[in-house]
C-alpha cells in the first residue's frame, strides 16, 4: 500500500477536482491521475466517479476514503511519537505562565496549537513573572506569559492584551469609599493576598 496514493486520493475527494488537487499538492495533473488509477487497480475497481461535477466517490470509494483518512492520520501520529522519542528536545515547548493569565482565551490558543502541531508536546509551568524571566534566560522555558513589562536586551516582549488593575478593599479601609483611581504607592507597606511562588509543571493535552 502506497501512502502517497492514499494522500492523493483523499485530496482529490476533499477538493472535488483533479486540477485543484494537483495545484494543492504542487504536482501536475497527469501523474496525479496516474496515481489514482494505480490505486483503483490495486483496490479492484473505480473509487471516483469521473462523470460527476464536482467529483464524487463511488460507493466503494466512500469506504476507502474513510479508511485512507484514518491510515494517514495514524501514520502522522506514529511519526510524531517517533520524533518525540528520538528527538525529545525538539518536540517540546515549555510555557511559563501566571495562573491568573491562563484564562479561557489563552487555553483555547494552546488547544488550537496542539491541534495544528500534534507532534509537539506543550508543557505549561506555573511561575510568577520574575521567575519566568530567570527561566527564559536559563533555557528552562521557551515562552513566558506574565504580567509585568520586561525591559531587557536578551528577551523579546510582545503585548498580548492590556487589563485594568482593581483594588479590592474592606469597607473599613480609608481608601475604600473614594471611588476614583489610586496609585499603587498608596498601598506601600500594606498587606496583600498574592499568588504562591511555588511552580508546577503540567503537560497540555
From TrEMBL:
Signal peptide: none annotated. Residues 1-58 form the HTH lysR-type domain. GO terms for cellular component: protein-DNA complex. SUPFAM superfamilies: Periplasmic binding protein-like II (SSF53850), Winged helix' DNA-binding domain (SSF46785). Transmembrane segments: none annotated. GO terms for molecular function: DNA binding; DNA-binding transcription factor activity. It comes from the Bacteria. InterPro entries: LysR_HTH_N (IPR000847), LysR_subst-bd (IPR005119), WH-like_DNA-bd_sf (IPR036388), WH_DNA-bd_sf (IPR036390). Keywords: DNA-binding, Transcription, Transcription regulation. PANTHER family: LYSR FAMILY TRANSCRIPTIONAL REGULATOR, TRANSCRIPTIONAL DUAL REGULATOR HCAR-RELATED. Belongs to the LysR transcriptional regulatory family. This is LysR family transcriptional regulator YnfL. The lineage of its organism: Bacteria, Pseudomonadati, Pseudomonadota, Gammaproteobacteria, Enterobacterales. The gene is catM_2.
Amino acid at each position: 500500500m502506497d501512502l502517497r496514493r492514499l494522500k492523493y486520493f483523499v485530496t482529490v475527494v476533499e477538493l472535488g477536482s483533479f486540477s485543484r488537487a494537483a495545484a494543492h499538492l504542487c504536482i501536475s495533473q497527469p501523474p496525479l491521475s496516474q496515481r489514482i488509477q494505480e490505486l483503483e487497480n490495486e483496490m479492484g475497481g473505480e473509487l471516483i466517479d469521473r462523470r460527476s461535477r464536482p467529483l464524487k466517490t463511488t460507493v466503494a470509494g466512500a469506504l476507502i476514503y474513510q479508511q485512507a483518512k484514518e491510515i494517514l492520520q495514524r501514520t502522522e501520529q506514529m511519526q510524531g511519537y517517533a520524533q518525540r522519542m528520538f528527538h525529545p528536545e525538539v518536540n517540546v515547548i515549555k510555557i511559563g505562565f501566571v495562573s491568573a493569565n491562563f484564562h479561557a482565551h489563552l487555553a483555547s490558543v494552546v488547544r488550537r496549537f496542539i491541534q495544528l502541531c500534534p507532534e509537539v508536546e506543550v508543557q505549561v509551568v506555573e511561575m510568577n513573572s520574575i521567575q519566568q524571566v530567570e527561566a527564559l534566560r536559563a533555557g528552562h522555558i521557551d515562552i513566558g506569559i506574565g504580567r509585568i513589562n520586561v525591559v531587557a536586551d536578551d528577551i523579546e516582549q510582545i503585548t498580548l492584551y492590556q487589563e485594568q488593575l482593581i483594588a479590592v478593599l474592606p469597607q473599613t479601609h480609608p481608601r475604600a469609599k473614594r471611588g476614583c483611581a489610586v496609585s499603587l504607592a498608596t498601598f506601600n507597606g500594606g498587606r496583600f493576598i498574592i499568588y504562591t511562588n511555588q511552580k508546577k509543571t503540567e503537560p497540555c493535552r
